[in-house]
Each structure stands twice: as structure tokens, then as C-alpha cells.
Amino acid sequence: MMLNETRRSKAHFDYILTALIFGLAAFGVLSVSVATFSTASDTEDTLLNYIVASHYGLRQAIFFLISPVVIGVITFFPYEFIRRRSQLFYYFACGLLLVALGGQAAGVKAWIDILWGYTLQPSEFVKLACIIVTAKYLEKNDDPMGSWSSAIRLVLLMGVPWLLTLTQGEMGSVLVMIFVFGIMLFFGGIRLKVLGGIIAAGVIALAVLYAVTMASGSDNYRITRILSFVNPALVDEAATYQVNNSKIAIGSGGLNGVGIFVQGSFSQLDYVPEDWTDFIFSTIGEAFGFTGCLFVVGLYLLMILRLLYLARYTADRFGQMIIIGVMSMMLFHVFENVGMTTGLMPVTGIPLPFLSYGGSNLITNMAGIGLVLNVVRNRSVTNSELLTPQTRLRNKYVQ
């Protein structure tokens, strides 16, 4: 093994990845505050006062301050416990999904009331649980889906949280989990023909399940979202209002944006619905312009490339699959969110990692990065010498 590979495979705390995600999260606090500030409040023109005066900005700042604790706890959590007790996280997440069925918000039964108006969204945490349990399965099986029994077992294992999440109306979260599952299987060594068959079967099964959940008529607005993306002429103007206004807001930012906390801006006038959560990218586009959007996308690209780099030099199969799972989760969120706010993808309600308002979303993303840091901190250089030819081939995909 080359000396250069040995150095890159050493266990360490990855400060580069940590700096990237905290930079994004800090920018998220600013963006949420810009999207929700009010000119009615009597406050001095300072950044801190604007954040404090913004209800959602202040709450996002609180979540941001909690983030280092989340990162620290998960980074230094016993790695072998995560590996050996992976199913505990799975059962706990599924249990939270069952509890959430009793609550409802905006037609979606996906939140659990906690205290002081704060809520918990289990579908966010179940993504990480699925990543952990899938990584454990792939660690034990060099040929995923190599037999009917293993295929059925894995599909049933994933089908339970997917069905529970779909029942709650969280179609976007299900799409994320399916994408993550497929990417992990690909890097885990599954044959492409088998993966293609699974994807086709999964799409059919998802369509059938979704049709069943629509029987009550409560999910008709999701069909409207799809139709408005395929052919806006098939729906009324109200169905395309959010996306149209989002594109106008982003375009109005021009090259360098209109600035932050500007009276009469689209953000201040609430021109784009939910521009502090799912449509935060429209706020960034208006306030910081094309330059700001390019900066944000660039940070995400660096984060994805860093995760791929860390996976490439992680010999431990379980740990490598954890990193691949977190990377694919972030990738889908960014691609879909930026796409839907610019009209290139249908609206699914998927938040932008580290930037969109939401404690469950931010804490889940921080926990995912914490898992990656835990893997990198506990990996062994000597294990790199034990790589099988199949593992070496898989690592080439990660480069």
C-alpha cells in the first residue's frame, strides 16, 4: 500500500467537513432571518438585533447553538455500539413514526408536539436509521440481493419505515430514502440488472401504495403539484403561484442581489410562501443574487466531494456505507430543493440541508455529519491492507 494512501486513511477529526457544514448552518440562520424579518419591530439596524427580532430566525439560531452538542455526542459515541446495535436505531425511529400518526399539520401526520410550540418530525430521523441498518446489512453481505431470501428480507426491512412515512403524507421523505437505498446498494456491490429491477418494482409498488393513501382524497394537492410541473396549463394559477413567485424572486436578485433586510423586498412582503423553509433558496437568490446562489451551491459541492473523499479512504465496509448513505441523502436534498425552487423539479416539500428552517431537519443533518466524523475518527489504517479485489473495485466508484 502506498504511503500516501496510508496518510489519507488515518483516523482523525475532519475539520474541513466540520467547517463546511457549520458555515452553511450559520448562513442558514442569516437566510431564515432575512426571510422572516418584520419592519414593524422597533430595533436597531444590527445583524444580531434583526435575528433576535425574527421569530423563526431566533429559533433557528437556537437550533444552531445546539448543533455542536449534537455533533460532539454522536462523533464520540461508541462506534462499535452503532455497528452492533444498528437495529435499535431502526426500531426507535419506526416507533416515533407510529407515535406521529396521532398528530397532524397541514394535512400531514408527521409531527410530534414536544414543548413550548416545538415539534419533532420523525421522518427526518428515520432516514439516518435506514442508513445505519442498510450499512449493517451491506457489511454482512458481499452480494446484496444475491438470493430471493436476502432480497425479500431487505425489501421488507426498508418497506416498513417507507410505508409508515408514506401513510403520514411525507412523499418527499420516502423519495429521499429510496434514492439513498439505491445509491448504497450500488456502492455496496449489487449487480446493475438486479438494481434496475428493484427500482422498477419499487416505483410500481410506490405508485400503488400512494394510490391507496389517496383514497380519502386528502392527498389531491400532491397530484396537483405533479400536474403543475408536467403541464401548468392543466391546473389553475393558484397551483403554480409558489413556484412562479419563487422564480421571479430569484431572478430579481440579479448578479449580486438586492441586499439583506431590505424593506419592500419580496422576502419582507412574503411574496413567496414558505420562503424560510422549503423555499429558502428563493430568499437567497433575491438577497444575494446569482453570486450568492453560486456560493451556496459551491459549498454543497465541496461538502459532497469531501464526503466522497472520506469514503474512498475508509476501508471499513460498514463505515464506508454510512458515509455513502449520508452523502446521497445530502445530494438528493440539494438537487431536489434547488430544482423545485427554480421550476426544474416538482414541488415535494424537501428542505435545503442546513439552510431551511426546522430543528428536526438541522439536527438530523448534523447527526448525519456526526456519524461520518465518528467513522473517520475510528477507522483503522491497517484495515486498508485487507481490502478484497471486490472492495477495491467498489472504491474506484467512490473516487
Describe the structure.
The chain is mostly helical and 399 residues long. The protein has one domain (3-398). It is 67% helix and 1% strand. The chain is built from 16 helices and two strands. It has helices at residues 3-8, 15-36, 47-53, 55-75, 79-84, 86-100, 122-140, 148-167, 171-188, 192-213, 220-230, 241-252, 280-312, 317-341, 359-378, 389-398, and strands spanning 112-113, 119-120. A two-stranded antiparallel ribbon has the order 1-2. Helix 7 runs parallel beside helix 9 (171-188), helix 7 packs antiparallel against helix 14 (317-341) and helix 7 runs parallel beside helix 15. The longest helix is centred in the C-terminal third of the chain and has 33 residues, at 280-312. The chain is globular. Residues 382-393 have low confidence and may be disordered.
Beta-strand content estimate = under 5%
Largest sheet entry: 2 strands, antiparallel
Number of strands: 2
The overall pLDDT, averaged over residues, is 82
| N-to-C order of helices and strands | HHHHHHEEHHHHHHHHHH
Structural class: mainly alpha
Nearest-angstrom radius of gyration?
21 Å
- Tell me the overall shape: globular
Query: Helix proportion of residues, in percent?
Result: 55-70%
Number of domains: 1
- Helical stretch count? 16
Task: For the largest sheet, list the strands in their spatial order.
Answer: 1-2
Low-confidence segments: 382-393
Q: What's the N-to-C terminus distance?
A: 17 Å
